[in-house]
Structures are given as structure tokens and as C-alpha cells.
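Blinded run. Sample ID left blank on purpose so nobody reads anything into the name before looking at the predicted structure. Input follows.
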Amino acid sequence: MRVDTVHQGESYGVKGVLHINAVDEVTQYQYVGTVENISESFQLPVLEGLLQAFPFAVQGFHSDNGSEYINHTVAALLRKLHIGEFTKSRPRRSNDNALCESKNGTTVRRIWGRGYIAKHYAGRLHAFNRELLSPYLNYHRPCFFAHERVDAQGRVHKRYRYQDMHTPYEKFKSLPGAAQLLRPGLSFEQLDAEAYAHSDNEAVAQLYEALEALFLELPYERTAVA
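Blinded prediction complete.
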């Protein structure tokens, strides 16, 4: 699982809320959370909730070099959740966390833009992310997956074909032995009921209707990302 923090604007030196973006590198399953700041009391409960939201066990954790993830409290959380592998990006190598960096722009920034949102709205944004945005991303938003071809010289060529587009949930279900990868107590029947409760068009309409209603209540002019 790859994780990064997205800062939500600044006003007169005061920083806004922060989004925690967690993406599985195999299926592109994605969960987004929002916190007031990156102190332990705010960050750890949300990070733990994101890690436990994945329908499969998380085997590894990768972040950039930010101190919000490279510390003893996060290490203790990973041990508690039995996540054995921890890696971090090399200095000045943004491509080491490229999948998460790209999702920052195509999903988090697309929804929340770049404008300042005051920290005391973090709870409302987190509820929106948990109840609407993350389910939409996992069940209704298709992602490209690379088709790899090895040439005669042994070089790997990646192509992104339309027939290889799947939602993260579809990709997960297509993996060999996927049913054995589910967390205890979960079944594909339960996940299907959530995934197919709405059509893709209904899900995106519901998402943006709720988003517009939320922004009407926030003292904020969104700078959208096209």
C-alpha cells in the first residue's frame, strides 16, 4: 500500500486540512481520509481506519520521506496491524511513489481542488471521503492497468489498452485465489451488494450532488483541476 499526504491550501500563513491518500499498488484500491493536522492524535486513528478499510490484508507500507509517516508511532501501528514491510522513497525521487502521486492529482485534487479549507471542517470532509468518494473510486471509477510485453532483447514494454481498464474492485476479483485474500468475515456477496447497489452513472451523480451541497456550506472558492 502506498500513502501520501495532500495539503489543502493556505490562508495568511494558516494551513488548511490535510488529506491522506492510500492506494494499493496491485489493484489500485484507494481510500482517502482527511485530518486537521498530522499530529499523532489526529493522524493515527484515520490512518488505521484507512488501512483496515481495504477488503484484503495489507502486506507492505510505502511512503515518501515525510516525518508524518517515518516515526515510532506509525511503526507501532504497522506492527499492531501485522504489516511486516515498510519502505520509503529515495530523496529527490518522486517516481518512487508515482502511483500515489498521480492519484493525488487525478482524484484528490480533482474533487477538492487547491483552495484553502479550514481545519475545523476536517470531520465533514472525512465523512464525505469515507461514505461517498472512496466507494466511488473503488467500485465505479475505471483505471488503466499495464499490459506488459517482453521483446527479444528482454526489455519490457508497457501498453495501456482499453480492454485492460477495470475498477479496482473488478481487478481484485480477477486475481487468482481472490476469495482467499479477503479479510476474515468478508465475502464477495457482501462486497457485490455494495458495489452494484448503484450504476456507475448513479454513483457519480450522487457523488457530485453531495459535493456541490457540501461546498455551498463551506466558505471556500474551489480551484478545480480539469
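Unblinding after everyone has recorded impressions. The two ends are 27 Å apart (CA to CA).
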